[in-house]
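Bump. Still looking for Methyltransferase type 11 structure tokens.
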Amino acid sequence: MRSFDELVAEADAAPTEGWDFSWFEGRATEARPSWRYQRSMGDRMAVARAALDIQTGGGEVLAGVPERPPVCVATEAWPPNVAKATALLHPLGTAVVADPEEPPLPFADGAFDLVVSRHPVKPYFGEIARVLRPGGTYFAQHVGPASVFELVEYFLGPLPDETRNGRHPDLERADAEAAGLQVVDVRTERLRMEFFDVGAVVYFLRKVIWMVPGFTSAAYLPRLRELHERIAAGGPFVAHSSRTLFEARKA
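Sorry for the wait, here they are.
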């Protein structure tokens, strides 16, 4: 078995831009939602005329659909991801716009008949409704409530209920309806995750930066060492991600 120091050093050195999770192969697993988001998104892209992908990350999900509409645009805030998404999506005819996560979106009212997003930091339904044409669709996979909180609370301790329920689908439904959208489908699933070594935990928390804000291996070295020993003695660390399929339509 590789040493604690070797595992942590390797994870600290690995690049984190984009949403390619192939680094985890053989080191961590996560079950996938039953609705197969990328395939379902691709079905909607194939019949759209103009589509927007909000917070595209490195563009991997959008690039993986078989067909994109004649007008296709993606936004992203983090500069390393902007560069990666541009290199991936421009050859496919998709423009990438560097844009903050907060409103406003840099597009005219009613510019798109389809808006999609996979794991937005926060869905700003007022802006989504504004850029959708009448009859247009918002189709997204959100991070659900208390996602991977077994791991988060291992480092941060117990969190208050308002934090655990901050992404509850009932709250998101209410926000969408308040923005004038008709919610047509909301489904949430909890999915088993396993981390087989402490390096996978370090890399995950470096990549998904909102889980443990400000995370560095140096700041949490004692807890990481305890986790390394726990995995060595008892097997993988088990957590559960939470995913919500969210579909709404502009009247």
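The chain is about 35% helix and 25% strand.

Edit: fixed formatting.
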